[in-house]
Amino acid sequence: AQSVTQLDSHVSVSEGTPVLLRCNYSSSYSPSLFWYVQHPNKGLQLLLKYTSAATLVKGINGFEAEFKKSETSFHLTKPSAHMSDAAEYFCVVSEPPGGSYIPTFGRGTSLIVHP
Amino acid sequence: NAGVTQTPKFQVLKTGQSMTLQCAQDMNHNSMYWYRQDPGMGLRLIYYSASEGTTDKGEVPNGYNVSRLNKREFSLRLESAAPSQTSVYFCASSERGADQETQYFGPGTRLLVL
Questions:
Q1: Cα–Cα distance measured from residue B2 to residue B4, given in angstroms and rounded to the nearest whole number
Q2: CA–CA dist A85, A107 (Å, integer)
Q3: Would you say A4 and A23 are in contact if contact means Cβ atoms under 8 Å apart?
């Protein structure tokens, strides 16, 4: 069985400061991990994904995430927040064939960016 | 290449009315999904279809039915709408194996049941 926990429901930062959105997962297999972003009144868009290659994954808009198996974490970071980063962010775990390949979503973290 | 399209974008229903939400994808994906999104709950899977001709229940299937009409289209039906079904509904598609399960989402349908 797989599960994902986003540790913060809201994160508030000032423009130009670093962003950290935290995600822990549980999986019986070597999972694929994803971060999706949802801007207000929009659908979800893939930010980045981990698929057992490099543990540090770079995504769009300057975001990156590091897969840490020992900590079962996949935290999302960005060095400098921009106003346009204000959105809802979802961490997702998906298992390979043999596991439950239906993706499981976290409850989301709302990123608030202050001027 | 439109990706995933959903109709309608917004709908208001009265309790007990029925409606069908339509979803289509033009990426030749085998897998399609219906989710509902409620505040603080993330996305919860209603039904999915791993391939044409198959459908399976997700986490919250009660009150819904689905039809995988062909490889492109996957519809969600509410037979007798209830206020608890007020939500935003998202359709998604993916291709198993290739592209490592990345899901592509439609823009959503906002449903209000009075």
A1: 6
A2: 18
A3: yes
Interchain contact, B42 vs A105, CB within 8 Å: yes
CA A8 and chain centroid, separation: 12
Q: What pairing do the DSSP bridges indicate for beta strands A23-26 and A56-58?
A: unpaired
pLDDT tens for B46-60 read 999 988 889 999 989
What are the tens digits of pLDDT across the range B81-95?
999 999 999 999 988
Beta-carbon pairs below 8 A across chains A and B: 51
Strand segments (E) across chain A: 3-6, 10-14, 19-21, 23-26, 32-38, 44-50, 56-58, 64-68, 73-78, 87-94, 104-105, 109-114
Q: Compute the nearest-CA separation of A109 from chain B (Å).
A: 9
- Statement: A3-114 belongs to CATH 2.60.40.10: yes
Identify which of B42, B96, B102 has the shortest CB distance to residue A101.
B96
What is the C-alpha end-to-end distance of chain B, expressed in Å? 36
Is the confidence at residue A37, as pLDDT, over 80? Answer: yes
> Could you tell me if residue B107 is left (phi over 0), alpha (psi between -120 and 50 degrees) or otherwise beta?
alpha
Eight-state DSSP code of residue A83: G
Rg (Cα) of chain A, in Å, rounded?
Answer: 14
Structure-token pair, residue A17: 């400061």
In B, minimum Cα distance to A6 occurs at B42
pLDDT of B15 above 60:
yes
Name the residue ranges covered by the structural domains of chain A. Answer: 3-114
